[in-house]
Amino acid sequence: MTIDRAREYTVIVNGGSGCFFQPADPEATYILTAKHNIANAGNQITDLTHFQYQNDHWEILTIPFENLETGVNYFPHPNKDIAIVKIQRLAGLDFCFRLDDLDFDRNGFSLLGYPKVRRDEYPDDKPKWYRPDEGISILDTLPGLLRGAHVPGNPSYEELVGQSGGGIVKIDGDKLKLAGIINKIPTQSEQLGRIEFTPVHVFNEIIELHKNQLAPLLPSHLSSFEFLRQKAFELNLDRFQRENLGTVLSFLRLKAKEIVDSDLTPAIIKDKLNKGLLVDENDVDNLSDMQVWQAWLELLTVLNIARNEKCSLENLEEDFDLYRLKYLSTTDDWTEHFHSIQYADYKGLKTGEGKVFVKTSGDTSPSGLLDLPEHMVVDITRDFNFELLKTDSGSHPFKDFKFYHIDYLKKKCIRDNEGSLKGLSEQEDILNALRDEYSKLFG
180: closest CA among 300, 286, 96, 270? Predict the structure, then answer.
């Protein structure tokens, strides 16, 4: 994600701006904006324009606002300057995520919008409409409202008019993290003043008032595992391996539908297990990462097969006593991250029986198994901080639990068994063969 590509998430809303967000509704896209952009136009929408990068150039697209009915697709907050416009789902906008923890890092934000002066002065060169102001810092926090610092470069008042309703965002790799929506720019007499904006979580107040019409501000893949099923059980295979194992991987995706059709969703697991989910403690936004939940879908599917028993919300906590999934947002070899693995929260995990599956955003180790030599375990467990350790018994994770990379389940049980799996075509035969392999790990 670059600041220029963030243009795809920025919308002209009447005389102001807005920001696209894909909610937990596969049929809808939201435009988060400032209420006054629509209220000042008599509660009418007269312009919804955005850019999309297609065929190596920016194309100007207009959303058919004539189909938007006030009161049905327009949801203003009753007493705050924010609103949601609900439109039919637009493709390719899946990398904008909520950023709720604004106290953790207050620097490096960007302000996105469409200043009115650029629309008036550049009618034949419309990509210049978009203006990103980078390097903004959040100065202080007030109840329900944040105030942004001066825009770098001290733009004139004219260069700010029209940006209200735009997003306060931070770029993080391929993600655009949305912190809030601009409400008020400085007046002409205070053009060096602060920019007021509402944190994105406040939009939940609108959603709460319209539960039957609005889905939560969660990425779609948190609302159902269905959005991840076709990406599950991916393996880098050559042509001949694909021919031999393609049927097996397709069968696993079919079995993953049992999880999709159960009462388990990423959002429910996230809420139920909360901080027990083993993500990097300093990056809680990883709980929205697709890779975390793709790994969960694979683990739950394998458990279904191994035990011949369907995972459900009812037995989730029981499973959680035996198995954990640790996510590391790194492309490094996972075995290098002893510190993060060692001090994760293993409370409730059964000593001697617990298994931890590690997921990284990079490649796995060659073995997929954290099989430490005994002398190394002794050295590690001799030199650690008791106060940071989080286990029930006070024992050490590397002595009492088994650690695997999540891809070990594919390497050990599928790739390494290519010879015995390649001739299978009947579902029952594939199921029995996989169950034999998975049962060696899970019992």
Answer: 96
